[in-house]
Amino acid sequence: MRQVAAIIGGGVIGGGWAARFLLMGWDVRVFDPDPDAARKLGDVLDNARRSLPGLSDVALPAEGQLTFHDAMSESVSGAAWIQESVPERLTLKRKVYQTLQEHCDPAAVIASSTSGFKPSQLQGCATRPAQIIVAHPFNPVYLLPLVEVVPSALNPPDLVEKAKAVLTSLGMYPLHVRAEIDAHIADRLLEAVWREALWLVNDGVATTAEVDDAIRYGFGLRWAQMGLFETYRIAGGEAGMRHFIEQFGPCLEWPWTKLMDVPKLTDELIDKITDQSDQQSGAVSIRALERARDDNLVTILRGLKARDWGAGTLLNAHDRRIEGPVALPDDLSHPIATMQRAVPLDWTDYNGHMTEARYLHAFGEATDRMMLLIGCDAAYIAAGASFFTAETHIRHLDEVHAGRVILIETQVLAGAGKKMHLFHRMSTDGRLLATGEHMLIHVSLETRSASEPSPVLAATLERVAQAHAALPLPEGAGKGVGVRGD
Amino acid sequence: MRQVAAIIGGGVIGGGWAARFLLMGWDVRVFDPDPDAARKLGDVLDNARRSLPGLSDVALPAEGQLTFHDAMSESVSGAAWIQESVPERLTLKRKVYQTLQEHCDPAAVIASSTSGFKPSQLQGCATRPAQIIVAHPFNPVYLLPLVEVVPSALNPPDLVEKAKAVLTSLGMYPLHVRAEIDAHIADRLLEAVWREALWLVNDGVATTAEVDDAIRYGFGLRWAQMGLFETYRIAGGEAGMRHFIEQFGPCLEWPWTKLMDVPKLTDELIDKITDQSDQQSGAVSIRALERARDDNLVTILRGLKARDWGAGTLLNAHDRRIEGPVALPDDLSHPIATMQRAVPLDWTDYNGHMTEARYLHAFGEATDRMMLLIGCDAAYIAAGASFFTAETHIRHLDEVHAGRVILIETQVLAGAGKKMHLFHRMSTDGRLLATGEHMLIHVSLETRSASEPSPVLAATLERVAQAHAALPLPEGAGKGVGVRGD
To answer: Which of A434, B73, B76, B271 sits between 20 and 30 A of A53, alpha carbons compared?
Structure first.
């Protein structure tokens, strides 16, 4: 049975939570008094559906069911997780918790998306304060891994651990904030930058576009992969962190910022920022900007996955948790499923079609999976041998769009001695998209030339090859480019 | 004749400048009294050589010549650009300018890497203040595009424009800072974050690793592609920037930061940060961290290039400037060069070898170039027709490493009616790496099925096909996978 999440408040943040829970296989029950809530949440969900499933290198669980409820009491029925994302007013939030606790499971987690309040403030006059915790996410919630988990002294450790486990299962990174402070950790840093940026614009030093360029062409690129301290550790060079602080520390005393002071949000300043922002980004709708942002984030996150670094390492671990152990099937009378995944945004062109080279990318990963299944795993490769692809023949038969789930099934045409001859079929919903025929040679990674596989690997490969010998020769196998007929 | 840059001070920043100038084809003359300067600069240059050339999708100019000089006077001889990156002490910098101006070309640009001083402070008692300007880069200088160009009222507009043009030609983005303020723009923002982060660590709220995680799993990913204001514009949702400020503006008045106060850099705080940083990153050498950072930055930047967004748009424009106009060669008696580029880091595996799918990626781009050369350009495609690849046959013959320059030469095997049959050869220094044979079909983008090309395109393709018909049939052409001999 699917788990149930209740989403209290379905704006940009609540909608993002709803999308993440749904796409990770939870049923979601939404309460939001806004008559336009279903449409707004649908927009967020559309964005999430096109970007999140393909972020994974494995197929996500089947999407859960989404329902809207007129009463808060009804929405929390059966919910193991209740996420509150109502406006940042303490009295409102406290009133919401009162209603929630009258109707919800006492064992459920009630998590607040607050970016500012401390959990002990939220728990204030609650019936069961121990049930309420802060889980502060970042927009877009369905793509960014960070979520700040802030408990108070009243939250029992097992509730904190349970909350962290649920968030991890959603593909997020729960950053356990050990001390209650206003605005937690990330928003303190953001608030500092925001104030300084307002001064720069207010004083006419820079426009909103210039501030953004100063970030995205410079330190923003550094911070997507290393944070502040690791970056400065490198800046210190061989002498390291201590040298960096000693060299740059004195600047702290210089009058470099106006941080001591808060800019007044006058009508003039608000107009100035709004006008400059319109000039900078106004030619593009918010919807188009959201999609550009998501395309960029997926591209960056998947780049970091390929590097297995930072947020990419988190995502790889999440894929492994979803997929579980991998083994050769007992029944070898059919081609073997070697890939099932959604087409990610970074595999597609501006039209949303999967690009030519990504077919080989997918077939290459299917080949890697086949190697793993017959025993050519990380340990085997570390011991000094592997398979190299000598030849590839791809037939492109049909197009496929971002977000569609593709399946690759692999037939071993031959597997004896140093050679492994594979035939992959890529399809979506039974529609054949492409075939890939590959000749692989077993090599010694030391000499970089052909070598005999280990007896165990050879025996496994031969067992699959013999079972597959009973299958018909696939259409197109053995043909050259432009050669037709059979 | 190559242009000459003088690098005064060859540390991390000066070395980064030297590397960027050299790899963009300038001769570089270095002055640095540190006896270890050549080794240190060599380390930076090694990093730059493995990461920068492949960032481009076209071949960079031949590397310039690097020389070291014992006298500052000698280093500036013939230099059109003099980059000063000596320690941040005003008296020292002023003394350096005095010596420089005694010996350098009065028409040369003297640019300071200072992150803090205003140009008018630097110009203070100089002989020719108009020649001195701020060009503040970001580490790693050879990869990050941002450079803050800060003139004073004494700099003539043509000097400012010349400086910006040179920096643009180096692949950088000159952000013209129109008002002189301490620390320019980016470092004011960085300073704000740095102060707040020091407080978080000082007060035991977060460790250095937790601060970094709060950045790189969250807003750091946003800032690599959009800055602060564009991100918040989206956060405002359909109501936009004004709504965002009105909703979140009041928080500015809350006591969310300790910005009013400067943390004292006591020995205890320095020890705490250094120890935490060692625990976070100490298992990896600075050299390994630098390479991981560069691998990540290249991956992110190339992802943004594919998206043609932000820093990627800058890099694409730089490639087009380097390459100049593209046209079919007059002499069609040889295969046509359709690609020349360095193998980028994101095309390689952990061993530095180009991965399987990137061969097709490269062949696909060579095919795109061939299409462009025969007239299937952006306008032709926008008008509703293009070529789709129906079939591909790749033979992998040898391995190639990151940073090596690969060449693809293309032979048209047939080109008549709806079909274009291409044969690509990929080589490095005359060593054949792979061949790619491709059958392409001319299609209507509306019906997505085969269609006749325009008469002009058909005639051009036929002209090339007829000229290439005289060439011998390439070895391996027309063969199926596993089929040998001729």
So the answer is: A434
